[in-house]
Amino acid sequence: MAKVELKQPIVQAIAEDIQGAQSAVLVDYRGLTVAEDTELRKQLREAGVIYKVCKNTMMRRAFEGTEFAELDSYLEGPSAIAISKDDATAPARILCKFAKDAKALELKAGVVEGTVYDSAALNELAKIPSRDELLSKFLGSIQSPITNFARVIKQIAEKDGEVVEAAAEEAAEVTAE
């Protein structure tokens, strides 16, 4: 077999991983200990992020014709790639958090939802909470006024000595919803 035929499955695997991905982040992993690398892989796997160490030429070929092709200029030295298909900020968030403790890990660049970011921009992007956190905060802010209104109505009813059980039950139902 020719060398090209041996490398084609690797390029194809990378291309399949980035197909439909919301984000991909390149890192320089040199200097990480085995324990640090194992912990990093565990955190990424738990978040549903694909993490691979690949040759730069293989990644260049896989990136051809995709939105990730702009990462070619950052493919120098040893590179690993973290890919997420679900949560666009997960790779940047996890890698930036991990890089604070493991100084050897360096973020190079990334593509998040079609936009290329350098390492400084990725650090800022990592500060954005996950989609689930944002949704829970949003729902909490929507529910808060209704809950407060129900409490005020209940206090007014108790103050006047006219505790109406039906009104209290309705307030409880509104709060539960």
Automatic annotation (TrEMBL):
GO terms for biological process, alphabetical: translation
| One Gene Ontology term of the molecular function aspect | large ribosomal subunit rRNA binding
**Record keywords, A-Z:** Ribonucleoprotein, Ribosomal protein, RNA-binding, rRNA-binding
- Alphabetized Pfam families for the sequence: Ribosomal_L10
Q: Which residues cross the membrane?
A: none
PANTHER family per the record? 39S RIBOSOMAL PROTEIN L10, MITOCHONDRIAL
- The protein's role, per its UniProt record: Forms part of the ribosomal stalk, playing a central role in the interaction of the ribosome with GTP-bound translation factors.
Q: Which family does it belong to?
A: Belongs to the universal ribosomal protein uL10 family.
Which HAMAP family does this one have?
Ribosomal_uL10
Q: What is this protein called?
A: Large ribosomal subunit protein uL10
**Gene responsible for this protein:** rplJ
